Amino acid sequence: MVRDAYPILVPLVVLAVVCVALAWFWQGFLILAALPAIAACFVAYFFRDPERVPPADPRLIVAPADGRIVRIEPVATGDGGDTKGGTLVSIFLSIFDVHVNRSPIAGRITGVKYQRAQ
Description:
Layout: H1 6-22, H2 28-46, E1 68-74, E2 87-92
Antiparallel strand pairs: 1-2
Helix pairs in contact: 1-2
């Protein structure tokens, strides 16, 4: 599971356990325990991080994420509008897809430039 899930998951589990413990005094707490328990199960499912074994062929490029490819288009760099920047691949992730992005190819980052969306 991804580390980012723990600040959400732990309080939900604690709340569910406290509700179950309080059910000794009032049975209604047992029903209330179901809500954080169901939410905890959803969070654990949403933030899952299954092991992926990429193909051994170094010439292959694998998808960086699960989901459905919704757009593929060349990316222009510089002011001249040339298309040497690469290719943009947009992937839509539903709530049932694994929300972990991986590196599709080996490489080294040589620079980072933030560009605000238009």
